[in-house]
Write a structure and sequence with these properties.
This protein is α+β, with helices and mostly antiparallel strands. The chain has a domain at about 5-80. The protein has helices at about 5, 20-25, 45-50, 80-90, 90-105, and strands at about 15-20, 35-40, 60-65. Strands 1-2-3 form a three-stranded mixed β-sheet. Strand 2, helix 3 (about 45-50) and strand 3 (about 60-65) form a beta-alpha-beta unit. The radius of gyration is 13 Å and the shape is globular.
Amino acid sequence: MISFNLQVNLPTGKTRWGGETGADLLTNYLRPEKFTLFTDLKKNDFIKGTRLMPDPNGEIEVYETFWEKGNAMERCVPPLLVYADLIINGDKRSIEIAQRIYDRYIQE
């Protein structure tokens, strides 16, 4: 399933991966099972740009971007948000990867 994120066209600068996929981009250590996107695009522009269709039972969650722009890593939300997404999951593997992200990107 990891190839999934490579097959989705992300409109550069407008849509970024969070959650498990963001964690995989930051650590190259996690095979995503859940997919989270953040975007500042309107619904129709998002659908056109990504070619993803709404599905209430789908595997992708899409949220509105709420932070200032300027993340250094293209295609990924800020590490703090990835960390928070993983902590919320609460499972052992998410907590382990969250700790790696904290140690590498958040801790000073």
